[in-house]
Amino acid sequence: MQVSHRPAALSVSFDEPNLVSAAGLLPVMTLARDAGLQELADEWLSVPTDKGANAGLKVASLVAGMVAGADSIDDMALLRHGGMKRLFTACYAPSTLGSFLRSFTFGHVRQLDAVASRFLVNLADNAPLLGSPGAEDFVFVDVDDTIIEVHGYAKQGSGFGYSGIRGLNALLATASTNDTAPVIVAQRLRKGAANSARGAKRLITDALRTVRPLQSGWQDQGQGRRRVLCRFDSAYYGHASVAAAVGGGAEVSVTVRMDPAVKRAIAGIPATAWTTINYTDAVFDETTNTWVSRAEVAEVRFTAFSSRKKAEQITGRLVVRRIPELNPKASHGQPTLFDTHRHHAFFTTVDAKVLDTVAVDRTHRKHAQIEQVNADLKDSALAHMPSGVFAANSAWLVAAVMAYNLTRAAGLLAAGTFGKARTGTIRRKLIHVPARIATSARRIRLHLPESWPWQTGWEKLFTSVHAPPQTA
Fold first, then answer.
1. Phi/psi class of residue 161: alpha, beta or left (left: φ > 0; alpha: ψ in -120 to 50)?
2. Spatial CB neighbours of 410, under 8 Å, sequence gap ≥ 6
3. Residues of the chain with CATH 3.90.350
4. What is the rounded distance in angstroms from the CA atom of residue 35 to the CA atom of residue 409?
């Protein structure tokens, strides 16, 4: 590709009032309207003074800006260019939205959490967020935290956590199935130096309460609810987190720390109990900087938290995966006298008749998909924490989660590869589509680029939220 005109033959001017750069916001925000975003925010939020006036419109503006790729308050200015005011009302200035966020307290953030959970449930009525019903399948609830890097000392709550990076800690819970991409069902912003498990009990309880109504549509079809499996890493191997999941009616699959009780259980596994498994894709072992393609798994009955009183102990299965320790000098004529292994164990309450040893190990390893959600958010609205006020950043996180779930629902309605695409891909192919606005006979028509490669997906999304006019 090369420029087809000489520089002297080109000129530019920013003077076209009928152009928009993100025409995909029209069907997406129509979907948000159908899911009741504005009404929910007006009902639940009680932000005081004039800063909290028209809370529904301001929350919708924040979500719209994040869907279009805004990662700072100043970026919300993209809602006010060209013909945007002909397609949308109440396109607030960035300064207005910033003042709105800074008026939040922790109580208002919890109110916004209530808006986010109900908005997600309403989105599920418009798009199959968790796929089609199937009583034999699980809904997977994954919990993890991530550090959002910040700079300077002015950020309230910033600190150095387990990653050694100054930042704020975001705790997330996602829900997914074998056939669907994850949606975020609960979120919480914490101090940067917070322990990973801090507040996890409450978040898990909130997540399970949100997942429950997401399955109501399946009950309407006579399929009943799917079983829920909560998957955690070792940071959440504690009685509070595991008991919250079990008490909420879910099964648990959690990586365990190598404490003496776990080591004794592993030592008691007979040599004949190990089953060899082959990884579909080799796994990179950061400890030895090598790729591992084979391992062995076995299991043993195990009672977690046996030091607590009997009523608080939880019985299940300890599933162990062992990987052989490689001798780097074996190729120099120094073979090992006997094989040694490194062990990775997790505790699960899933019955062996439902998932056998190999299947439950494969299922547990898929917990890592939540890292893709963390990366997705940091590639969009969570690239920055825009305010120095902790409560404002907490509200920003909740708005970012609503934008993520809304974009995920839009991708499902666009069908095809968009159903599991990253939100950045959906944004690039379906949201950032330029359009010229034309008006005729009191009707608005958008003229989009000819030969747009993803026209089919865009039209499916548009048609799903803008039903064609009924014939007489």
1. beta
2. 24, 27, 28, 31, 127, 418, 426, 430, 461
3. 134-378
4. 11
- Give the phi and the psi of residue 141 in degrees, each rounded to 5: -110, 110
Percent helix, strand and coil across the chain, each to the nearest 5 = 45, 20, 35
Say if CB 20 and CB 435 are below 8 A apart. yes
- Give the separation between CA 128 and CA 183, rounded to whole angstroms: 11
Q: How far apart are CA 108 and CA 394, in angstroms?
A: 10
At residue 284, φ and ψ (nearest 5 deg) are -85, 125
- Contact present, 215 and 227 (Cβ < 8 Å): no
Tokens of 324: 């052989």
Longest CA–CA span in the chain (Å) reads: 87
Other beta carbons within 10 angstroms of residue 332's beta carbon come to 8
Asked if 17 contacts 391 with a C-beta cutoff of 8 angstroms, the reply is no
For the ranges 40-44, 256-260, 401-405, which has the lowest average pLDDT? 256-260
Over 70: is that where the pLDDT of 194 sits? yes
Beta strands in 246-371 (DSSP E): 251-255, 275-285, 290-304, 314-324, 341-348
For the 134-378 domain, the top CATH level (class) is alpha beta
- Cα separation of 158 and 416, whole Å? 41
Q: Helices in 163-229 by DSSP H: which ranges?
A: 200-214, 216-220
Hey, what's the torsion of the CAs at 252, 256, 259, 264, to 10 degrees? 70
Strand order in the sheet with 443-447: 19-20, 435-440, 443-447
Q: For residue 470, what pLDDT band results from cuts at 50, 70 and 90? A: low
Structure tokens at 190: 């914490």
Q: What is the pLDDT of residue 324?
A: 78
* pLDDT-above-90 percentage for the chain: 76
Mean pLDDT of the chain: 90
Structure confidence by residue, pLDDT tens digits, 4-38: 777 777 888 999 999 999 999 999 999 999 999 99
CB 342 within 8 A of CB 325: yes
